[in-house]
Amino acid sequence: MLCKRNYYGSLRLMIKAISLLKSIAVSAVVLFLFSCTNDINKVKEFTKSEELAMEVQEDLVLTYSDSTIKRLKLEAPLAENFPQIKEPERRFAKGIDVVFYDAYGLEATRLKANHATEYYNKNLWVAKGDVVVVNNKGEQLNTEELYWDQNKEMIYSEVQVKITTEKEIIWGEGFESDQSFNNYTIHKITGQISIEDEEND
Q: With CB atoms 3.0 to 4.6 Å apart as the test, which of 91, 115, 123, 172 could cross-link to 189 if both were Cys?
């Protein structure tokens, strides 16, 4: 009888131990899932904050001067600032209109684009969508993407460009110039016509 009682007593203890272990396991799973849910929510919140502009400006007008001489004026209907992302930037989703001035404060070049992004830690701008640049000689550049490096005071493109001068129209791929668009180079010319010849025809 003692053996049987000990046997049944041990069996009851084993059953209780198994039940306790099951409870602990379930609690651990619930805690893990809750923790994961919290982590996912944090990720979602962080991702959402990454997508939100920290500063929004409408009808923005920026003027840059050097020794009291105006060097640049930028106008944009909308500017959104994202300083919190890995590569801080300011986006101009509704386009920009930029005027460059020469050393005497006279208008030298005008740039327009459908939208643009300024990477202000790099002093680099990227203009996209129907980009048009016109210099003081009346020469015009048309492209879909243009980079403006403020440090080097140059503009360049790696896509197709079209340059219209008083005498000719030139098409090419790849382009670079000083930011006043007076000294430029087309890397690969793909087409060229004389306006004078076209008018004579």
A: 172
